[in-house]
Amino acid sequence: MPVKPAIMPCRLYDNAPAAIDFICKAFGFTRLAVHADGATVHNAQLAYDGNVVMLSSGSRDGRNQFDMTPIGNLNGQSPMCICLVIDDPDAHFAVAKAAGARIITEPHDNDYGGRSYEARDLEGVVWSFGNYDPWADAANTAANASVEQA
Q1: Would you state the pLDDT for residue 12?
Q2: For the CA atoms of 18, 6, 51, 12, what is the dihedral angle to 10 degrees?
Q3: How many CA atoms lie within 13 A of 69 on its CB side?
Q4: CATH label of the domain that carries residue 56
Q5: What is the torsional sign of CA 70, 75, 81, 87?
Q6: What is the pTM of this model?
Q7: Start-to-end C-alpha separation, the chain
Q8: Range from 50-54, 68-72, 110-114, 120-124 carrying the lowest mean pLDDT
Q9: Any domain includes 55
């Protein structure tokens, strides 16, 4: 069986149960697994079209075995952006906006190709949803290089 390459962002949230609900409702993820004791989420795996993001609750003292912490007070800035390749950014945007996502940019065409929009989740993490596929671009570049060498 071939190995499926994957990078799974893992985040801590101050209110992980609310983050799970919001990410599923606004961004279209589904709960793959949620391991929790009451309001403390030890590990949640949320899926979107074969991709997974993981999240859990931040500890009250801000310490855990990986020395990770929720965003906390970063003066409204996000320490990261999670990007997903999707088929229809405009339709996805409409659902996210209706669900109360804080929109940063409405759907727009990008100079490098594709169309996307950006939004923040409940705790300020930036999410980018667009139809630019870097794998397709890499495949086209490789195919063109092969034709030029022939």
Answers
A1: 87
A2: 0
A3: 10
A4: 3.10.180.10
A5: positive
A6: 0.80
A7: 33
A8: 68-72
A9: yes
Structure tokens at 52: 């997974």
Question: Would you tell me how many other CB atoms lie within 10 Å of the CB of residue 82?
Answer: 17
Q: How far is CA 71 from the centre of its chain?
A: 15
Range(s) of the domain holding residue 14: 10-60+77-149
> Distance between CA 19 and CA 15 in Å, rounded?
6
b or e along 9-47 (b: 16 or more beta carbons within 10 Å of the residue's beta carbon)?
Answer: eebbbebbbebbebbbebbbbeeeebeeeeeebeebbbe
pLDDT in tens, 104-126: 999 999 998 999 999 999 888 89
Number of domains in the chain: 1
Tokens of 116: 């996307």
